[in-house]
Amino acid sequence: MALQPKPAGNRFTPRKVEPEHKINGKITAQRVRVVGENIEPGIYSLKEALALAEQMEVDLVEISPNADPPVCKLTDYGKFLYEQKKRQKELKANASKVVLKEIRFGPQTDEHDFNFKLNHARKFLAEGSKVKAYVFFRGRSIVYKEQGEELLLRFAQALEEEGKVEALPKLEGKRMQMTLAPKKKIK
């Protein structure tokens, strides 16, 4: 059995990454709006802007190609990319991650169990997590679906101050579920 030759571009060869921004000679517009540190913002011809960048020993980076005329910034391109990545990381870190906690009831859940699960739900909502409460019907217990709905509505009413109902009780198969989201705290 003869070995087959490897294809030219296999999965281990790194792909060429095209730069996101046009810099220096790659800019095609005739006139550009130039911004940057230690410079008078204004509209320049491309040649003037490139000469200015060369004089200041920085790059001319096209930051807004869809504007009329395109906006270019006089900055060091490496520093510019670093600041952009840093800004994106900051935005990602500040974005809140939604956690969904589940609380399960039976159609005939006792008062003590109900209160115990209610306290857990309060704790989850205080942490900022969403709570999905559901009643699971086993076998013939589906005939008690009205009791299940009453239980979930009573649960929502008890948590009125901590959270708001995002989805009302709805029967899906053998489960009746409802979602609660934490209320935003006013500072």
CATH superfamily of the largest domain: Translation initiation factor 3 (IF-3), C-terminal domain
Strand fraction equals: 25-35%
How far apart, in Å, are the first and last alpha carbons? 74 Å
Q: How many DSSP H or I helices?
A: 4
Q: Would you identify the CATH architecture of the largest domain?
A: 2-Layer Sandwich
Please provide a brief summary of the model:
It contains four helices and eight strands. By secondary structure, it is α/β, with parallel strands linked by helices.
SSE blueprint and pairings:
Elements: E1 31-36, E2 42-45, H1 46-56, E3 59-64, E4 71-75, H2 77-94, E5 100-105, H3 111-127, E6 130-136, H4 145-158, E7 163-172, E8 175-182
Parallel strand pairs: 1-4, 5-6
Antiparallel strand pairs: 1-2, 3-4, 6-8, 7-8
